[in-house]
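step=encode ok
step=design start
structure_in=
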């Protein structure tokens, strides 16, 4: 990556030791955070299928949550991240839990692995922050032999409003994370370009996670989101979207 890209917030923000230490608590703390974490774990396990002994790469592993989950299931996991601070937290957690994962420095835009090195490549909460998301998708597909699994905020959701607001704030000098949103059509096209096709997708919530965290009631969240799902809104407006894509037969 160029020095200009390395100045991108997605690198500088996660190089902060405080961010690394508090990342999991901020994202997965509280009842709604726990609900998000458990749902993510269930979806990931369902998408991967057989886990035992499979070589899996976790790109943008952060504090290693997905990598550790897969390793506990018996997978042979490598987790890469551009932040040494996040990797330090991941290694600490792995040591505390007695789980074996190889954590390495690496960049989602230029993975240092040969083509088709892993059965499955996972990348969660990376694409939305990447300076060059198309290049990231190309790299995920390049090193995956069978499946790629990643998530993204949908442009057909309220995330589009939050993204636009953050981008505006960033332009006037406010420190924030001006993430990108993506349309399902754009994601499908990017996958097809590299020989993959969508197999399944899971949409999390119709309303923003921040709203549900502010309310702080799992019962309220599940009741409301189930009602919105029955109205058909989750299919169209649900976000973030987690997808699993498979390599097309040749």
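sequence_out=
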């Amino acid at each position: 990556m160029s020095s200009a890209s390395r100045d991108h917030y997605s690198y500088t923000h996660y190089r902060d030791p405080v961010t690394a230490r508090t990342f999991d608590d901020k994202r997965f703390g509280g009842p709604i955070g726990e609900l998000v974490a458990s749902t993510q774990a269930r979806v990931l396990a369902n998408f991967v299928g057989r886990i035992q002994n499979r070589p899996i790469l976790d790109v943008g592993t952060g504090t290693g949550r997905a990598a550790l989950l897969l390793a506990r299931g018996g997978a042979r996991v490598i987790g890469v991240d551009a932040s040494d601070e996040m990797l330090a937290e991941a290694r600490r957690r792995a040591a505390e839990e007695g789980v074996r994962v190889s954590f390495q420095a690496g960049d989602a835009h230029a993975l240092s692995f040969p083509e088709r090195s892993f059965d499955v490549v996972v990348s969660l909460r990376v694409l939305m922050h990447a300076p060059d998301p198309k290049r990231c998708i190309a790299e995920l597909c390049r090193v995956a032999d069978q499946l790629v699994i990643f998530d993204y905020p949908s442009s057909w959701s309220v995330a589009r409003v939050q993204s636009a607001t953050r981008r505006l704030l960033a332009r006037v000098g406010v420190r924030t994370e001006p993430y990108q949103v993506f349309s399902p059509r754009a994601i499908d096209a990017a996958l097809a370009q590299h020989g993959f096709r969508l197999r399944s997708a899971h949409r999390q919530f119709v309303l923003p996670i921040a709203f549900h965290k502010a309310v702080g009631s799992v019962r309220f969240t599940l009741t409301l989101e189930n009602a919105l799902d029955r109205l058909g809104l989750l299919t169209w407006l649900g976000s973030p979207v987690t997808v699993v894509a498979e390599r097309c037969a040749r």
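step=design ok
step=annotate ok -> The chain has a mean pLDDT of 94.
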